[in-house]
Design a protein that fits this description.
Resolvase-like_N_sf, alpha/beta, 196 residues, 2 domains, single chain, Recombinase family protein, Resolv_N, DNA-binding, Rossmann fold, elongated, DNA recombination, five-stranded mixed sheet
């Protein structure tokens, strides 16, 4: 039985491109048909269809190939779980061309260090994102979803609604919004009036 190279690539957002990882995997000897991918899923999410397919495709003696460890996992626990699964199936792991031997104490140490660095990077990204959102919120740039209707339009909608001459569906058509927007606007305006 021939040993296969099974590739795995992942990007966290739909705006990102998998081309660089695909090219790197092909340079490492992985056939394009053996590359499994996840698009728009973070490394902290273990429920990734492409990863499941890649792990399922691995047989005794095969090698799972990733361009970088952070593409495979962003937490030490997930990385360890994946390596344990590969070890149980007698599958090697190649990270950027360097084959990891989980039975070698030095190899296991290096793998754990790499996994900790990947987790640390993920934690830094989350911390920077939270900090950036707090700064944007303090400056008034992060205000949440804006209402579909302007304040004068909301007042006009309430006047027509109180007159009782139009149904909710007709109001939605008249103001070019969904019925749910009409309901929300009425609820919001009634809550504001009740506080006065």
């Amino acid at each position: 039985m021939n040993e296969l190279l099974i590739g795995y690539a992942r990007v966290s957002t739909y705006e990102q491109d998998l081309t660089a990882q695909r090219v790197a995997l092909e340079r490492l000897g992985v056939a394009p048909t053996n590359i499994h991918t996840d698009h728009g899923l973070t490394g902290t999410n273990r429920a990734r269809p492409g990863l499941r397919e890649a792990l399922a495709a691995c047989r005794d003696g095969d090698t799972l190939v990733v361009a970088k460890l952070d593409r495979l996992a962003r937490s030490l626990r997930d990385a360890s779980d994946i390596i344990d699964e590969l070890t149980a199936k007698n599958v090697k792991l190649s990270i950027g061309g360097s084959v990891h031997d989980p039975l070698d104490p030095v190899g296991r140490l290096l793998f754990n260090v790499l996994a900790m660095v990947a987790e640390f990077e993920s934690d830094l990204i989350r911390a920077r994102t939270r900090e950036g959102m707090q700064i944007a919120k303090a400056k008034g740039h992060l205000r949440g979803k804006q209402p579909k209707l302007s304040v004068p339009q909301q007042r006009h909608l309430m006047e027509v609604h109180r007159a009782g001459t139009h149904s909710t569906a007709e109001l939605a058509e008249l103001f070019s919004v969904a019925r749910s927007t009409v309901y929300r606007t009425v609820q919001r305006q009634e809550a504001i009036e009740a506080r006065r």
